[in-house]
Inverse folding.
């Protein structure tokens, strides 16, 4: 049966890249399978034969891979984002998360004396100006980006900031290289 969207001819550099990817043991398995299938089709195999080569039941997915390769080239073998797009939080939402974190929790209203990711999430979701769909991972990522880390003593701490006791009282000491050490 004639293929509706046959594979275009591969350039030498595309063939080399696909062959290298097809032999890879460290690349994602889906990328390796796509490369192997595209090489098989370019060598004259049908979509069904290429599908069987990479462990697929039917050639429909191979036809989609070929169509995408014809459109975008080698980018077609890379994994594409699927499903719904992740919720994007801008600077305003990040500032709101940090403001809620810096607010001292109220035992009556928040039900805690110290913030955990779950209690912070609950407070942000309940607040009238809060974030009703914020995840604990997003909260953690925002805190981490701000240099705030979870400590073994079950408290949050600014990375590179320490409170030292001196004769004249407590002093905050900032490590200027904290962000370099964090990464």
């Amino acid at each position: 049966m004639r293929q509706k969207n046959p594979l275009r001819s591969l350039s030498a550099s595309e063939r080399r890249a696909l062959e290298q990817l097809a032999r890879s043991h460290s690349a994602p398995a889906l990328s390796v399978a796509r490369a192997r299938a595209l090489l098989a089709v370019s060598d004259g195999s049908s979509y069904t034969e290429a599908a069987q080569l990479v462990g697929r039941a039917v050639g429909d997915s191979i036809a989609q891979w070929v169509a995408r390769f014809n459109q975008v080239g080698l980018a077609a073998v890379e994994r594409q984002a699927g499903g719904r797009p992740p919720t994007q939080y801008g600077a305003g939402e990040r500032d709101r998360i940090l403001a809620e974190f810096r607010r001292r929790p109220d035992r009556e209203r928040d039900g805690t004396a110290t913030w955990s990711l779950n209690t912070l999430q609950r407070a942000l979701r309940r607040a009238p100006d809060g974030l009703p769909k914020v995840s604990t991972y997003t909260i953690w990522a925002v805190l981490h980006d701000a240099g705030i880390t979870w400590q073994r003593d079950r408290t949050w701490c600014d990375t590179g900031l320490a409170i030292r006791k001196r004769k004249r009282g407590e002093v905050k000491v900032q490590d200027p290289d904290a962000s370099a050490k964090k990464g």
Q: What stands out?
A: The chain is about 50% helix and 10% strand. The beta strands are 148-150, 156-158, 161-166, 169-174.
